[in-house]
Amino acid sequence: MTLKFQAMSRESIDQANSASSKEASPSRPDEAQPDENQPQQLATGDIDPATVATDEEDEARLPEVTEDGNEVIAEGPLAIGHAAIENAVKLAPTSPGVYRMLNGANDVLYVGKAKNVRKRLSSYARASAPQPARILRMIAATVSVEIISTATETEALLLEANLIKQLRPRFNVQLRDDKSFPYILITGDHWAPQILKHRGAQSRPGQYFGPFASAGAVNRTITALQRAFLIRSCTDAFFESRTRPCLLYQIKRCAGPCTREIDFPGYTELVREARDFLSGRSRAVKQELAGEMEKASAELEFETAALYRDRLAALSAIQSQQGINPRTVEEADLFAIHQEGGYSCVEVFFFRTGQNWGNRAYFPKAEKSFTPEEVLASFLAQFYDDKPPPKLILLSHAIEESELIASALSIKAGHKVEVITPQRGEKKELITHALTNAREALGRKLADTATQSRLLTGLVTTLGLPQPPRRIEVYDNSHIQGTNAVGAMIVAGPDGFIKNQYRKFNIKSEGLTPGDDYAMMREVLQRRFKRLLAAPSEAEAGSPRADDEAVPQWPDLVVIDGGRGQLNAAKEIFDTLGLTQVSLLAVAKGPDRDAGRETLFMPGREAIKLAPRDPVLYFIQRLRDEAHRFVIGSHRKLRKKDIREAGLQEIPGIGPSRKRALLHHFGTLKEIERASVADLGKVPGVSAESARKIFEFFHAQPG
Questions:
Q1: Helix, strand, coil shares of the chain as percentages rounded to 5?
Q2: CA 599/CA 612 separation, integer angstroms
Q3: Long-range contacts made by residues 508-513, C-beta under 8 angstroms, separation at least 24?
Q4: For residues 63 and 651, what is the distance between their CA atoms, to the nearest angstrom?
Q5: 500 with 40: CB under 8 angstroms?
Q6: pLDDT tens across 394-419, in order?
Q7: For 409, what's the count of Cα atoms within 13 Å in the CB-facing half-sphere?
Q8: What is the mean pLDDT of the chain?
Q9: CA 239: distance to chain centroid?
């Protein structure tokens, strides 16, 4: 039995978190680490992390439901677990703290907090005490306990939430798919402020409005705000280079401050109105615009009156998209939970400045035995681990530790935070509305999961697989005449695409013949599966093992975009590495690349042709197309980076003079890339032929 006991002040909590993370996820010096949103266990040496090419939010996938565990637990292991906890009790403090239960492999099984750690651990140590099956399984697996002492119970709560998010213990409720939320920023470092979407640290001068539930909600709101207040969205470099108004001015989504189509006082007034609207003074702003419209109409200035009318309509469109805008709730987050079929759905609504700024559904991982109150309490603490809490938090279910959570969040936010469960009035109506959304979101997700299960079962029949695949990996390559070659892997499972496990591979082989797709595929597969075979926990068998997210590291099915040649290249690697547990499938495009006429190839079998409307074929097409989309996006990012580093010198026929003329006209390389052939031809010194070459250089289709 191992007991680590450490006194912990609030200032030291961050160091403990960092140490815990390193302990849970050891890595070798040659391993490329994934970005902060990638699961730690998927950090593999030759696999470069990659984010999804699109900026839209992904709805969380359902976790795998853990059985209630009614099976009989052997007396021996349970007795060993009780003994380990009893030994920990002898040295445990009677003060607040956080404890971690570990198994024989030093994996963290459970993270808990307590006002009196010794008393809490004693409740686990009593063999005669009745316990849920989940707790008995946890005790049976425990061989050691680690304890961190904190000054207060509030600090213990904050540390517990942080450790759960980092370590993902099997027996805790886990908040998954936890992304940062986007904000709207009206900049304050330029005489003509810009409106834009912002994520991350709020370090740029200006006013931030949010959070919004999704990138789509922010984009729609910014578009409507541009129509209503005509504020620019272009970069400062683009703004400074303009000699004439851009298209946004022509379609009445910008006032044109870059070319002084509007003077400084006039633009400042537009910015003030936009800030007032986003700050909750929407009624006053609309009244001002309505007054100006009536005044212009009375003075027979009908074009001006029409402009005010369009701006009012844009503001109304924003509010209509927001749905419910409460009268008595100025700033609050609302959490409603619904459970069904062993799953939990937490619907979160954001209200700021009296406006509804969107909602989002979460599907936390929790065993069936957890009550809604237990799931909600753990979810809440983890949700605000890296987010600023509002002044008011509304809950659908009363939780025991509401006062403790309120105290912890108040300390974190620097202002008073209330956590309440409303019983009547408008707040109760908002909760009822959120519960309806939670129930419907979970119903849709369960239906989607059932459909996905049927498709996976169809793969078994069509391809002769031993069982429905729990993990499908799809591989594709992209390059232009061998340059900027990149491979990519996308992952799908019982709940659809698992985008946080996508990976890209920068092709590294020096002796590779440019454009050799077979060699590229061999390199990608070799790097991927050599790393899996080298993993200590899986080196012996080379067979699937489930991780904490119920998604195995090893695929059941590998899909290759290509024909018989690509299949043979993949099989060569599999034979070399001795992989016999993974099924291989190659998908060749039909004549003229027609969808619905694909041919499927598997080792040792005749080619498979499915009917064009076969659901299984459509499913395989979706997998192939998603891999193609992702690899093209990865290739373009790599190519743009090279272009930016090399500048315009790489374009045939573009010398220093034309480069200066292009940059002077468009401002940035990005805007040159966006320009049409006609716009490029308007630059002094750029002929029609040169404009065509420039356009083709930026828009060449990768192979």
A1: 45, 15, 35
A2: 11
A3: 508/46, 512/482, 512/485, 513/482
A4: 49
A5: no
A6: 999 998 888 999 998 898 888 899 99
A7: 26
A8: 77
A9: 32
Q: Which two tokens stand for residue 138?
A: 């946890």
Q: What is the pLDDT of residue 414?
A: 86
Share of the chain above pLDDT 70, in %: 77
Tokens 């990012």 found at? 637
Handedness of CA 143, 149, 154, 155 (dihedral sign): negative
pTM above 0.85, yes or no: no
Q: Which long-range contacts (CB under 8 A, 24 or more apart) does 504-507 make?
A: 504/47, 504/48, 504/49, 504/50, 504/630, 504/631, 504/634, 505/46, 505/47, 505/48, 506/48, 506/638, 507/477, 507/479
Say if CB 404 and CB 153 are below 8 A apart.
Answer: yes
Amino acid (1-letter code) at residue 19: A
Average pLDDT of the segment spanning 481-496: 78
Q: In 3D, which of 298, 437, 302 has the Cα closest to residue 361? A: 437
pLDDT in tens, 315-352: 666 655 555 566 677 788 999 999 887 888 999 988 88
Q: Hey, what are 525's tokens?
A: 């597969």
Question: How many Cβ atoms from other residues are within 10 Å of residue 453's Cβ?
Answer: 13
Q: CA separation (Å) from 418 to 139, 215, 248?
A: 36, 28, 44
Torsion sign (Cα): 351, 356, 357, 361: positive
